[in-house]
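User: I'm writing a short report section on ligand binding and want a predicted complex to refer to. Could you take this sequence and coenzyme A and write out the structure as tokens? A short remark afterwards would be nice.
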Amino acid sequence: MSEPPYSPGLAGVIAGETTIGCVDQGKLLYRGYTIQDLAETVCFEEVAHLLLFESLPNAGELETVKQSLANYRPLPVPLISALRAIPNDVPMMDVLRSMVSFTSHFDPIEGHDEAANRQRALWLTAQIGGIIAARYRLLNGQEPLSPKDGLSHAAQILYQCHGEIPDALSEELIDLSLVLYAEHDFNASTFTGRVICSTLSDIVSGVTGAIGALKGPLHGGANEAAMEMLARFKSAEEASSWITQALANKEKVMGFGHRVYKQGDHRAVILEEKLRKLAAQKGEETWMAIYDAIKKPMTEEKKIYPNVDYPCGLTYFLLGLPLDLYTPLFVASRVTGWSAHILEQARNNRIYRPLSIYKGPKARPVPPISER
Ligand SMILES: CC(C)(COP(=O)(O)OP(=O)(O)OC[C@H]1O[C@@H](n2cnc3c(N)ncnc32)[C@H](O)[C@@H]1OP(=O)(O)O)[C@@H](O)C(=O)NCCC(=O)NCCS
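Assistant: Sure. The structure tokens for the complex follow:
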């Protein structure tokens, strides 16, 4: 019998069926709706409903989602104590991973059927926003803030970080980034969540594992890594000479490339347009020039295009957010996509258990300890 084909990184391998998201060169769909239409017309809470409840909400359903998020936002008191105990130099993504696991010990939802897990997904979404903001404030020597009634999820996170209701532009751009980040089919972190839950483990374990997968710079960590790269340059000229050298040395340039998109990422195009307006409005043309100095040779010479993390890093930066918040904000959104996939996996589950090609020594006897 011939061996099944081997594909490093599972490239090109179909690992499951889904009705949630479709990622291909021609389009990005969330349950059949294009990302362009969603980005223009709906807010993050509507996307959360679409992913978790399988339809865009009517006005009453949207109100219910918002109310659920509001009810689930307050953090358990022991979680705040645990946050205080974590050393200040621990990266935010590590804190978030630990605290998502920790908060599950105070899970207010009863039961583990699909309806309960949908609520659990909303509860996790609400808690994650609060955890990020509470950690941010403690790091800045400030006390965590209680949520404020009536704010959107995007505005709430900013409010709980800064203690001020954000301006309309900041809210709009954070909300847009949450919409763009919410779902992306069988990417590494979503697949991690599905694999964990394919053992019949629980949704919090799936989301905790997915956070660990997302933090790597080849995945969600790229928004921070891309901004770290841009921040090294004071001018477009400096960026140009660096990228020439980096390409000659075959260095990886963060925020570029994608396993599926080979002619560009739909989300990057949408966000870049808004980023240009933001930079112009703030008089930050130098940053855009640096951004373009890297992008030009990557796209024109290498034919490797920006992914969403490239414009997102600079967008968050121009909005005044600290680097350590960028990937956590990705989590604040993608938790909805992860949860939808975990629910879908449970409905038609088969444990993930691929094969490997053994390259180790041939079978051999165990030598006695005196001979090793
Ligand atoms: C996203 C990513 C992990 C996809 O990996 P992949 O599907 O395995 O892509 P490949 O390694 O097959 O890339 C094909 C070629 O393009 C090159 N390439 C891909 N992304 C590149 C990048 N960001 N910078 C420079 N070269 C890159 C690879 O080195 C490879 O070149 P080679 O054929 O000469 O070896 C990869 O593009 C990457 O590391 N990007 C930077 C991190 C990032 O922005 N991640 C966020 C993704 S949304």
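A remark for your report: The domain at 17-217+323-347 is CATH 1.10.580.10 (Citrate Synthase; domain 1). The chain has a mean pLDDT of 97.
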